[in-house]
Amino acid sequence: xxxxxxxxxxxxxxxxxxxxxxxWLGPQHGALFRSFGADEARETxxxxxxxGAVLVQADDTVADTESMLAVAARNxxxxxxxxxxxxxxxxxxxxxxxxxxxxxxxxxxxxxVHDDPRSDFLDLPTVRDSLALVAQSGLTLDIPDxxxxxxxxxxxxxxxxxxxxxxxxxxxxxxxADPELMDLWRADFLALGRETNSVAKLSGLHMPGIEYTPDxxxxxxxxxxxxxxxxxxxxxxxWPVSTLGAPYGRTLDVLLELLSSLSPSEQExxxxxxxxxxxxxxxxxxxxx
Length: 289
What we know:
The chain is of the alpha/beta class. The protein has one domain: TIM Barrel. The chain has helices at 38-48, 62-74, 90-100, 125-136, 151-160, 179-193, 214-228, 248-259, 264-279; strands spanning 2-6, 15-16, 19-20, 52-56, 78-83, 106-110, 140-143, 165-168, 198-202, 233-235. The strands form two sheets. Strands 1-4-5-6-7-8-9-10 form an eight-stranded parallel beta sheet. A two-stranded antiparallel sheet has the order 2-3. Helix 5 (151-160) packs parallel to helix 6 (179-193). The chain starts with a strand and ends in a 10-residue tail after the last helix.
């Protein structure tokens, strides 16, 4: 298996030049409020039988991206990096893309849209201009926690920019505890699935008010299969954020139990094939190795 969604951060660089990084993270997050480094991540992956991962940004800063790229340069288990560029400033985005794409492990970009006060972020002309550059560079765009503010605009983005591969993290954060909101999520989620340049991550599904079990998650899993099929789904552990809900091994075990209903070839797509194809990872699926 390849974990398509893993984070790292170091709190001794929490403030640089007077700028506070990881501003979403604080003492209220309990055990999450500490550093999570490459050695601990490698041990966690090894214990779960995961052969490699894609590092995904956790802060809207160049420093976070540079840190992940430095880790990737030292650790062959890092198969890809999804970093941050300033999407609302195309000239700056172009410079950052030129710099980061010099390292082949740089595979995509992401912005913490759920923390951005602009509900129209993905529709901004400047952002669209930058995303055109992202697409031209052969990179992807990850979108975190899209529901409720950004799932509709994610659909518009995928429809209006078919040249861009749009990766929906955490299935868009389905509001499983609220049936009425689930209807709204499902409508946009299925609409996104109809755009063939979209991909979704089976990740980040620890949600308030919902027990993290295969039975509780089966409705959203079935919606994911309906919308995307296994050929456009990939598995992600969302470590270490997911540890607030369950240990890493348990997080994966629940997802693997859901996937057990698929054929071996379909499981391979979700476990490795989709991530390799979507991010252009320089590894061979184990079924072909």
